[in-house]
Q: What sequence folds into this?
């Protein structure tokens, strides 16, 4: 666990002082990176906010362990998010190296990249799940918790056998959606 895990804890606990410290330490760096690459202050604020929300979601279950500096992790996530925005805009070429002004140990950068890629993959799976039918989404999300499946079945008004069958079908559908998604085809 990296000492910067404290920033993850601040996000998990919605600690306003800790979150303010994150902004104080890193917002100007993220802003500079975005502004140097065809963005503005509003873009930078949006990207940083989205990145922090993604990190919060990734760590909400309490199992996420940061193994690199928080700055490297945050910058990598923001960089990927901004590159995605630029790809969507397609008319705004990158004007400067997006790495200008950031010096990280290559191991830290690689670790942050792995974390960011995992975050992107998890976010994509959750988006695919959100686009599934209501019943499948409800069943899969209910089964993701710590509650036993027998309790989930009772809460949803289903028999345990039907829940297991339906969950299996829904997971199969989700698996097919994941396999077809371009993010997962590249690996």
A:
């Amino acid at each position: 666990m990296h000492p910067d895990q404290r920033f993850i804890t601040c996000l998990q606990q919605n600690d306003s002082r800790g979150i303010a410290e994150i902004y104080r330490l890193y917002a100007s760096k993220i802003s500079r990176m975005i502004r140097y690459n065809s963005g503005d202050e509003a873009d930078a604020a949006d990207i940083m906010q989205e990145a922090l929300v993604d990190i919060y979601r990734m760590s909400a279950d309490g199992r996420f362990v940061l193994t690199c500096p928080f700055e490297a992790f945050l910058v990598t996530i923001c960089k990927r998010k901004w590159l995605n925005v630029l790809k969507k805009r397609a008319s705004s070429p990158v004007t400067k190296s997006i790495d200008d002004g950031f010096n990280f140990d290559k191991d830290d950068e690689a670790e942050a990249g792995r974390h960011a890629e995992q975050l992107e993959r998890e976010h994509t799976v959750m988006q695919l799940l959100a686009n599934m039918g209501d019943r499948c989404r409800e069943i899969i999300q209910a089964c993701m918790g710590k509650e036993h499946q027998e309790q989930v079945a009772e809460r949803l008004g289903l028999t345990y056998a039907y829940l297991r069958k339906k969950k299996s079908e829904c997971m199969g559908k989700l698996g097919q959606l994941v396999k077809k998604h371009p993010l997962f085809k590249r690996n």
